[in-house]
Design a protein that fits this description.
With 85 residues, this protein is mainly alpha-helical. It has one domain. Helix content is 82%, strand content 0%. It contains three helices and no strands. The chain is elongated, with a radius of gyration of 15 Å. The termini are far apart.
């Protein structure tokens, strides 16, 4: 289960570094469905571990956003500019 939490942490940080908030909402929805399905299949304890992975996705997303802002400030990364439609 620790490897699942680590995987969710990596996915969240990459998503925070590259994508907008809408992606976070999609990831949270997917992990929440995963958490509910695992709780029904394997029991309450396994569901608590996946609840920790939901928290890992959210906190690592914030870490990815922070990393992107630091790299933008240093000049390594380009600021995210949304094209006008």
């Amino acid at each position: 289960m620790i490897s699942v939490i680590a995987l969710h942490f990596v996915v969240g940080s990459v998503a925070g570094f590259m994508f907008a908030v809408r992606t976070l909402l999609t990831l949270v929805g997917i992990v929440l469905i995963e958490c509910v399905a695992t709780t029904m299949a394997l029991g309450f304890t396994a569901g608590l571990y996946l609840l920790a992975s939901l928290i890992a996705v959210q906190t690592s997303y914030l870490g990815g956003i922070y990393l992107r802002s630091v790299l933008e400030r240093v000049g390594i990364a380009q600021p995210y500019v949304r094209p006008q439609a």
